[in-house]
Amino acid sequence: MTGHSDSSSSEKKSNEEMNDVPVFSAENMQNNMKVIYYSRTFMSIIGGVIAGILGFTGFMGFVFYFLVMTITSIGLIAKAKFSVHLYVDSWNRIILDGFMGGLMSFVLFWTFAYDIVHIF
Amino acid sequence: MAEDLVLDTAIRDWVLIPLSVVMVLIGILRYFVSKLMRSSQVPDPKIVKEGQVIVRARNLRAAANFIPPKSFLSRRVYFSNEENGLLFVPKGQTQNAQAQMFSDPNMAMDMMKKNLSMIIPQTLTFAWVNFFFSGFVAAKIPFPLTQRFRSMLQNGIDLSTVDVSYVSSRSWYFLNLFGLRGLFSLILGEENATDDTQRMMQMSGFGFDPSKSLGAEKDGLDIVQHEWALPKFEHRAEAVLKKLIR
């Protein structure tokens, strides 16, 4: 996971100019989106394991997934020092992007941990 | 009936974990094999030239506000001029590139190879799972599903009164198939051949590259309204320098 810690510390500024015309460095923005995606995937895996160990079933598990995603969003926004428009082009990107993408990984690891701890 | 079945620890040791480990290993193997097998295709010079023209036009469109109006207009005319503009492609030629791409044996072979390298490991693993791990309850999924999923998830189990949450190993295989995509993107870096949706997007964007995107670029370039941002830069430079002096 060294790639993960590296990339999270080097979220690059993609919008340097404070003009009326916003200019985006496409390469930096792509890197930022990648960082967001990695963070969400990682958190959904960890969240899945936690949900399984704690024994959440059914609806509670999905509520927990949304909770984990919200925590990830808040963490990302805090990392961007609350000036989100410097790093991505719109609020929606950092909050909603990849929300559903981590669901399958979450369910997999949730099932795995739940079975190992509670059934067997 | 919501009784709790107690399942043998041996199932966990010999079914769940080996299946996941095998799928992860096969994914890694497929990634390296596809990297090795990627044949270096000699790019067609005409297609490369058109691609570069598209890149130039795109750069012009993106940075249009940083050059004075007259030079922007002259560049735009150069690109989209009706007679000898670079982006203007007469209708007759548009079909050619596409047909040529599909009849080109190299390209077809490449696409076939990529398709096969995706499908064969999946089929083999699925057959292996069916052969060895059928006929017993493998795992319990933590959330309840309706009765209609029973036939899909419990195919090896012949009791109809068992809770739908208790699934067979085939569904564990499918769960792994979808869930490990995220894990692969973490361990293998971005470019991994295990994501079908990415693969399909690549496929669909392949055949139409030269003909349609030229027209699209031309339209995009025509739409751009030029607004020269340079005068404002002086004000901004003044503000920044003032801050520095203070």
From TrEMBL, chain A:
Q: Does the keyword NAD apply?
A: no
Pfam families to which the protein is assigned, alphabetical: EMC6 (PF07019)
**GO BP annotation list:** autophagosome assembly; protein folding in endoplasmic reticulum
Q: Which parts of the sequence are annotated with region: Disordered?
A: 1-21
Which residues, if any, are the signal sequence?
none
As for subcellular location, the record says: Endoplasmic reticulum membrane
- GO CC, alphabetical: EMC complex
Span-the-membrane segments of this chain are 35-56, 62-82, 94-114
Q: How does it sit in the membrane?
A: Multi-pass membrane protein
Instruction: Assign the protein's first listed, main location to one coarse class.
Output: endoplasmic reticulum
Q: Which domain of life is it from?
A: Eukaryota
Q: What keywords would UniProt list here?
A: Endoplasmic reticulum, Membrane, Transmembrane, Transmembrane helix
Similarity comment: family membership = Belongs to the EMC6 family.
Q: What is this protein called?
A: ER membrane protein complex subunit 6
Please spell out the taxonomic lineage of the organism that makes this protein. Eukaryota, Viridiplantae, Streptophyta, Embryophyta, Tracheophyta
From TrEMBL, chain B:
Among its keywords, does the record have Transcription? no
Q: Which Pfam families match?
A: EMC3_TMCO1 (PF01956)
A Gene Ontology biological process noted in the UniProt record is: protein folding in endoplasmic reticulum
Q: Coiled-coil region(s) at which residues?
A: none
Instruction: Give the organism, scientific name.
Output: Hibiscus syriacus (Rose of Sharon)
Query: Is-annotated flag, keyword Transport?
Result: no
Q: What is its main location?
A: membrane
Q: Topology in the membrane?
A: Multi-pass membrane protein
* Keyword tags: Membrane, Transmembrane, Transmembrane helix
Q: What is the lineage of its organism?
A: Eukaryota, Viridiplantae, Streptophyta, Embryophyta, Tracheophyta
Q: Name one GO cellular component term.
A: EMC complex
Entry similarity comment? Belongs to the EMC3 family.
Q: Where are the transmembrane segments?
A: 14-33, 119-143
List the subcellular locations: Membrane
* Protein's name in the database: ER membrane protein complex subunit 3
